[in-house]
Amino acid sequence: MPTATAANAGAAGSSASVMAEQPRVVFTPSGRRGRFAPGTPILDAARSLGVDIDSVCGGRGLCGRCQVDQSTGTFSKHDIDSRPENLSPGNAIEARYAKKKGMQVGRRLSCQALLQGDVVIDVPPESQVHKQVVRKRAEARDFEIDPAIRLHYLEVREPDMASPSGDLERVLEALKEQWGIEDLECDLRVLQGLQKALRQGDWKITVAVHRGQVLTTAWPGFHDRAYGVAVDVGSTTIAVHLCNLSSGEILASAGRMNPQIRFGEDLMSRVSYVMMHPGGDEEMTVAVRGAIDALFAEVAGEAGIDPDDILNAVFVGNPVMHHLLLGIDPTELGGAPFALAANSAMTLWATELGLSKINRNARAYVLPCIAGHVGADTAGVILSENPHLSSEIMLVVDVGTNAEIVLGNKDRLLACSSPTGPAFEGAQITSGQRAAPGAIERVRIDPATLEPRFKVIGSDLWSDDPNFASETQKTGVTGICGSGIVEALAEMYLAGILKADGSVDGAMATRSPRVREDGRTFAYHLHDGPPEIFITQTDVRAIQLAKAALYAGARLLMDRLGIETLDRIVLAGAFGSHIDVKHAMVLGMIPDCDLQKVSSAGNAAGSGALIALLNQKARDDIEAVVRRVEKIETAVEPRFQEHFVGAMGIPHKSAPFPHLSAAVALPPRGGVASGESGRRRRRNRV
Questions:
Q1: pLDDT, tens digit, 9 for 90 and up, residues 116-163
Q2: Same fold, 22-127 and 227-378
Q3: Rounded Cα gap, residues 392 and 407, in angstroms
Q4: Contacts for 259 with CB less than 8 Å, ≥ 6 apart
Q5: Residue 219 and residue 240 in contact, taking contact as beta carbons nearer than 8 Å
Q6: What CA–CA distance (Å, rounded) separates 65 from 150?
Q7: Cα–Cα distance, 363 to 351 (Å, whole number)
Q8: Which of 87, 128, 175, 591 has CB atoms 3.0–4.6 Å from 52's, for a disulfide?
Q9: Half-sphere exposure (CA, 13 Å, Cβ side) for 367?
Q10: Sequence-ordered strand ranges (E) for 465-511
């Protein structure tokens, strides 16, 4: 026994001696390190240590995604002297790649660079599989690129009479041996073209794998182009972003009006159209899918890519848009209990949605809905803005025809929708229009003279600038959009033209000809024309109704959460991103909050779709979060009416707004106009 022990000790000492002779490699920025035999490819060393280096070709020097930099010099921290000769010299494969596609001086393909001595290797961000996407807003969370679709280049064993097996089985064998991926399923469509791809590629193919589970596409030879689209199907507009699934780069974006508008401008009118016209749901489904297909072709053309390389699509939309996209009759969403056909997330073939300007085997992922009036677009907003990860109480409002509202933090989340109607988008306003060049988007009113100045979309100049007329000659001044009407009313209130009850003060006509009689009421003359633009009493009432519904929904959630104050407010949506937060609060669209903690998030629903496209774990996360969101139905909540009536005042009939009062000199408060206090806001359900 002593002899055996001595022998074992000798063997251990010999092994330690061999290890000591092996070169060391340290990877930055991860800090992972290890010893490897001389001649080991840097890519192999990285993989064995779990270092994040990208590769499609599997180390064959074709894709160029595994590029690294050798850091040379003495690194006392690592006790390493990293000399240039400690890596093998550049070879013909690297020279060929550099000549064909270009490569920074000093960069190496880690699959070709062989370890010869101690080295420090830096993995640049663009070579990392899980690249970090840094979002510009300070309060937004960064995320990693980890798409659901990944490409893998394979060299497949040829068929042999001596050991017969199917082409698919040998492809699966190659995936296991060369990439460590096993237990895959295969689409029938892939199988139908697999044999041809293998023989065209001389037994070398590239395959696309969806979430490490399903083989979805195969190309002959080497293929490294994989793209995805994030789609926000809004009731007014459809927005599409085309992304490189490897880098996360947005290559092209496009949008267009939702053609369903011809069936009804708001959601309820579209549901009514289906109820009154058999087959109306099919008409709207065909219309929206056609528009999405056209947008796919548009972004592919702008980016100069083949639509066949678009392998993944992610969709968000409100419940009615969700159902019509999926070809589901939305009638049940038109009345209580507002039942969804399904609220779970779905993964489909894109062709099941009738989409043709995309790879025929592409997968489409639809985010989950939350409730009958709180859809996949709200799930996208949550994914983008992360209230469920915050310790602060956050109110997130996606402002649209129906405002989707989320309130809470990491401990509890609530959601509801509130029927604001189309006034915020310029509809129901005398000179209102959608946001387009020439539309007034910013307004200021001098409280002494009551004279206005404004900006229009397409110009950075104010209307009192001497160059304004020439600058806007091409577009002219065409009307006023949602952000403009909000600022106009807030400025009218601050200047004393508008009373706290929402009535235009006719007494101001003695101070300025801008205030004019308009039948039995008064109006404010904003622009001399052409065209002449007035803010009428009817316009004010339309905005009051919309903003009161928005405020009431938010306040209802605050009641349910048992809070009186908010830590942060985020305004989302195309309209929300253009609202000046101070004017929104002066008007009383949102509850009081520190103005420094009120921000705009842009199209947060679309951003959520983008995150789900580029990070597959985000899909699992949002599905889990949605299951714990508490849904509040405003239509059956008695206090909604109470909050609505109070919110008809500007900024509110009774709420104190201490933060706003500290930042803005507000006029004395008055009562709600007669005739409005007893009138229920007509519910534009869905």
A1: 999 999 998 888 877 666 554 544 557 889 999 999 999 999 998 887
A2: no
A3: 10
A4: 287, 288, 290, 291
A5: no
A6: 13
A7: 9
A8: 128
A9: 42
A10: 479-480
Architecture of domain 227-378: 2-Layer Sandwich (3.30)
Nearest to 217 by CA among 150, 120, 138: 150
Phi (first) and psi of residue 399, to 5 degrees = -85, 120
Q: Give the separation between CA 329 and CA 570, rounded to whole angstroms.
A: 33
- Residue 514 · residue 524 · CB < 8 Å: yes
Q: Six-digit token pair at 468?
A: 């304004």
CATH fold for domain 148-220:
Ubiquitin-like (UB roll) (3.10.20)
Residue 673, both tokens: 């106009």
pLDDT band of residue 266 (cuts 50, 70, 90) is confident
Q: How many CA atoms lie within 13 A of 475 on its CB side?
A: 17
Which residue, 366, 367, 381, 365, is CA-closest to 417?
381
- Predicted confidence at residue 317, as pLDDT, reads 93
Would you state the pLDDT for residue 133? Answer: 65
* Tokens at 594, concatenated: 């520190």
Which residue has better confidence, 373 or 616?
A: 616
Tokens of 386: 């992360």
CA 234 to chain centroid: 13
pLDDT bin (cut points 50, 70, 90) of residue 30 is confident
Structure-token match 């280096």, residue found: 53
The answer to whether the beta carbons of residues 475 and 438 sit under 8 Å apart is: yes
Per-residue 3-state assignment (H helix, E strand, C coil) for 202-250 = CCEEEEEEECCCEEEEEEECCCCCCEEEEEEECCCEEEEEEEECCCCCE
- The CA-based angle 561-566-568, given to 5 degrees, is 125
For helices 167-179 and 188-200, angle between their N-to-C axes, nearest 10 degrees? 80
What are the tokens at 502? 């929402």
What is the homologous superfamily of the domain 22-127 according to CATH?
A: Beta-grasp domain (3.10.20.30)
Please name the amino acid found at residue 492.
Answer: M
Residue 672 near residue 653 (C-beta atoms within 8 A): yes
d(Cα 240, Cα 255) in Å, to the nearest integer? 6
What does the alpha-carbon distance between residue 584 and residue 109 come to, in Å, rounded to a whole number?
54
Residue 113 has pLDDT above 90, yes or no: yes
Cβ within 8 Å of residue 465, ≥6 positions away: 471
CA gap 59, 44 in Å, rounded:
8
Which DSSP category does 561 fall into?
H
Angle between helices 537-561 and 482-494 (to 10 degrees): 90
Strand partners, 256: 238
Give the pLDDT band (50/70/90) at residue 15: very low
Question: Could you please report the per-residue DSSP string of 3-14?
Answer: HHHHHHHHHHHH
Q: What is the pLDDT of residue 424?
A: 80
**pLDDT at residue 27, rounded to an integer:** 93
Q: Which two tokens stand for residue 442?
A: 């910013």
Residue bearing tokens 């182009």: 225
What are the extents of the domains in the chain? 22-127, 148-220, 227-378, 431-535
Cα–Cα dist 598/585, whole Å: 9
Cis amide bond preceding 29, omega within 30: yes
Distance in angstroms (rounded) separating the CA atoms of residues 143 and 604 = 15
CB 618 within 8 A of CB 612: yes
Residues 421 and 444: beta-carbon distance below 8 Å: no
